């Protein structure tokens, strides 16, 4: 069974928690057919950058009914499974040489195999070398009409200005504990497990802004098979129990 955070990855725009400033603008642009050709998504880990990149890919290539993405057509399913031939996720950390970029440029020029848009998601974009960035400049400036580039990074300050100025930059933010607990509550319901709201609220705080961390913590609790109570979360994570802390604070 895949990890929760893989199964729980939103396949519809409504399922993306927070990030309204990104989501609303992108949704509107896509529904009016105004898709950009180069985006930069920056922000902390686990807050929805890859998720949003995949949603753009799905929306652009969905062959199902409106609203797009339908999440269920062949194209959407292939993007979800990571097997769509025209949606390429490239780890820039390990493909950062000038040769890699040359290779990429040649492939970019070819038409999409399934006739729709070709989407390149360059993860960890800050890891590319300066020479590789420079080799990419021209392609980013004028990619063929069927290509969308999405660069994702946790360190936007390392992206050189000439690249920055060619991309529409969206900054993702840390999620609030309430936003995280809210999604977790929907997930446990879907799994048919009951959980104390206080347990989910605690996980929401411990996740420190990252939905992925919240989901992994929840997964640990589910794997243990015990009821999801606040005490169980505290014990599993080796935290001082709230009851013990309260006892310490008592004046007698
Ligand atoms: N805003 C969000 N709304 C709902 N779920 C989210 C959100 N952000 C992250 N998630 C959940 O966390 C998982 C990881 O998110 P994602 O891959 O989009 O993170 P990321 O921002 O690309 O992080 P990284 O910088 O580590 O690549 C997703 O599969 C999804 O389940
Ligand atoms: Mg990512
Ligand atoms: Zn679809």
From TrEMBL:
Keyword annotations: ATP-binding, DNA replication, DNA-directed DNA polymerase, Metal-binding, Nucleotide-binding, Nucleotidyltransferase, Transferase, Zinc
PANTHER family: PROTEIN STICHEL-LIKE 2 (PTHR11669:SF0), REPLICATION FACTOR C / DNA POLYMERASE III GAMMA-TAU SUBUNIT (PTHR11669)
Pfam family, one: DNA_pol3_delta2
UniProt name for this protein: DNA polymerase III subunit gamma/tau
InterPro entries named in the record: AAA+_ATPase, ClpA/B, DNA_pol_III_sug/sutau_N, DNA_Rep/Repair_Clamp_Loader, HLD_clamp_pol_III_gamma_tau, P-loop_NTPase
Protein task: DNA polymerase III is a complex, multichain enzyme responsible for most of the replicative synthesis in bacteria. This DNA polymerase also exhibits 3' to 5' exonuclease activity.
Catalytic activity: DNA(n) + a 2'-deoxyribonucleoside 5'-triphosphate = DNA(n+1) + diphosphate
SMART domains assigned: AAA (SM00382)
GO molecular function, one term: DNA-directed DNA polymerase activity
Annotated EC: 2.7.7.7
Residue intervals of the AAA+ ATPase domain: 35-182
Domain of life: Bacteria
Keyword match Transferase: yes
Quaternary structure annotation from Swiss-Prot or TrEMBL: DNA polymerase III contains a core (composed of alpha, epsilon and theta chains) that associates with a tau subunit. This core dimerizes to form the POLIII' complex. PolIII' associates with the gamma complex (composed of gamma, delta, delta', psi and chi chains) and with the beta chain to form the complete DNA polymerase III complex.
Family recorded in the similarity comment: Belongs to the DnaX/STICHEL family.
